[in-house]
Amino acid sequence: MPHPLPDDPDPALVRDTPPLDRLFALCPVTDPVIVDGGANKGRITDRFLALFPHCRVLAFEPQPSLARKLAKRFAAKARVTVRACALGPHDGTAELTVLSRRTLSSMLPPTGIHEKYAGQDLRETGRVTVPVVRLDTALPEGADIIKLDLQGFELAALRGATGILGRARLVLAETAFYPLYDGQPLFPELRDFLAAHGLAFEGLYDPFHDASGRLASGDALFAAKSACPGL
What we know:
Elements lengths: L18 H8 L6 E5 L5 H9 L4 E5 L3 H10 L6 E4 L2 E2 L4 E8 L13 H4 L7 E10 L1 H4 L6 E4 L5 H6 L10 E7 L10 H9 L3 E11 L5 E10 L7
Parallel strand pairs: 1-2, 1-7, 2-3, 4-6, 7-8
Antiparallel strand pairs: 5-6, 8-10, 9-10
């Protein structure tokens, strides 16, 4: 495997614990308000409901067909609110590029994602204009936990949450170590942005190495000092 690059995280901070288990261990409240950005089919929302029986989840999913399925799946769950929109830095609309593997669809055009999943069929199957909302607009009272899996749009979504980040205790965001989408900010920029808002990098979970052995992506966990005083 290649040596780590300068912008790769300290190997001591690459964890083998499941990220949601660690998030649960660090969360100082039993009834958190949770943002599930990029909720897809609802697997992570379900996991949040199991971990935190008294939580409230706001699930955001921009792909219309997935959002409809998500709303149907959680129709009987009063603790879950589904929003059929993307998260971003401005309220409005934007174009979503849909790929044949729908979980990799993004608000940004695909580039290095083809290297990450070399040999897999990742055709562009369409583009759709979707509503975009800032978290500051959607949830002005703030959230305890923000989870973002937005295929390169995580930092853009956080730029729309600067008014509520001061309340956040934990942020779990997918991040990349080389561009997977056109214009995607990489891990150092995400880390520095959240540090400036009082959230320190706690560790990298589920690291993914491409066929060449390069670290491509992972789930980065950030914690407020109230949640993790040792950081």
